[in-house]
UniProtKB/TrEMBL annotation:
<dbReference type="GO" id="GO:0019843">
    <property type="term" value="F:rRNA binding"/>
</dbReference>
<dbReference type="InterPro" id="IPR005709">
    <property type="entry name" value="Ribosomal_uS4_bac-type"/>
</dbReference>
<dbReference type="GO" id="GO:0003735">
    <property type="term" value="F:structural constituent of ribosome"/>
</dbReference>
<keyword id="KW-0699">rRNA-binding</keyword>
<dbReference type="InterPro" id="IPR022801">
    <property type="entry name" value="Ribosomal_uS4"/>
</dbReference>
<dbReference type="InterPro" id="IPR036986">
    <property type="entry name" value="S4_RNA-bd_sf"/>
</dbReference>
<dbReference type="InterPro" id="IPR002942">
    <property type="entry name" value="S4_RNA-bd"/>
</dbReference>
<feature type="domain" description="RNA-binding S4">
    <location>
        <begin position="93"/>
        <end position="149"/>
    </location>
</feature>
<dbReference type="GO" id="GO:0042274">
    <property type="term" value="P:ribosomal small subunit biogenesis"/>
</dbReference>
<dbReference type="Pfam" id="PF00163">
    <property type="entry name" value="Ribosomal_S4"/>
</dbReference>
<comment type="function">
    <text>With S5 and S12 plays an important role in translational accuracy.</text>
</comment>
<comment type="subunit">
    <text>Part of the 30S ribosomal subunit. Contacts protein S5. The interaction surface between S4 and S5 is involved in control of translational fidelity.</text>
</comment>
<keyword id="KW-0689">Ribosomal protein</keyword>
<comment type="similarity">
    <text>Belongs to the universal ribosomal protein uS4 family.</text>
</comment>
<feature type="domain" description="Small ribosomal subunit protein uS4 N-terminal">
    <location>
        <begin position="3"/>
        <end position="92"/>
    </location>
</feature>
<dbReference type="Pfam" id="PF01479">
    <property type="entry name" value="S4"/>
</dbReference>
<keyword id="KW-0687">Ribonucleoprotein</keyword>
Length: 201
């Protein structure tokens, strides 16, 4: 699966929101709260433009490409209930997002990298797909290697992971998915109604 590897600070400034959590990107948004590019009078955003910004927030926040976001949208549309809520809950259930929310990574790209490199085990099996959908009762652990254990001990002590639907044991580096997330547990402030309207075009 592809991922965005361009300048993160530009995306934060373009969307006016802290999508990327790396220190440099956060400082850039605090220092320059206006969009990147030539400083000029900005036109009022159209309805299409506002919806596009909301969609881009989801894409960059969860590290998705357009094709994968639309795949989640098609799946959410076939599920019972509100399509927008289903879409965000599917994104929240990604393995890399759970690793980040639990506090085993400082940023989502870091969590994704750890998943791709096979640093984590899901229910005792080593996995390398960050897009795996976790279920209630799933157990995520760090692979039993001293260098990985040491690294993630340091990361978890520096990271701030607070998540009501995930239980994290810092001593054993074990994450337990206690329940499935709901719309109230989604950490991204986004107008999902506009995203649904945009993707339904």
């Amino acid at each position: 699966m592809g991922r965005y590897v361009g300048p993160k600070a530009r995306i934060n400034r373009r969307l006016g929101f802290q999508v990327f959590e790396s220190a440099g990107a956060v400082r850039a948004l605090e220092r320059k709260e206006y969009p990147p590019g030539m400083v000029q009078r900005r036109r009022k955003a159209t309805i299409y433009g506002l919806a596009l910004i909301e969609k881009q927030k989801i894409k960059y926040y969860y590290g998705l490409r357009e094709k994968h976001l639309r795949r989640y949208f098609d799946k959410a549309r076939r599920m019972k209930g509100n399509t927008g809520n289903n879409l965000l809950v599917l994104c929240e259930r990604r393995l890399d997002n759970v690793v980040r929310r639990a506090g085993l990574a400082i940023t989502r790209p870091q969590a994704r990298q750890g998943c791709v490199h096979g640093h984590f085990q899901l229910n005792g099996r080593t996995v390398s797909k960050p897009s795996i959908q976790v279920r209630a009762g799933d157990v995520i652990t760090v692979k039993n290697r001293p260098n990985l254990k040491k690294m993630y001990q340091e990361v978890s002590s520096a990271s701030q992971g607070e998540c009501s639907w995930v239980s994290f044991d810092a001593d054993e580096l074990k994450v337990v998915v206690t329940s499935l997330p709901t719309m109230d547990d989604v950490s991204l402030p986004v107008d999902v109604g506009q995203v649904v309207a945009f993707l339904s075009r």
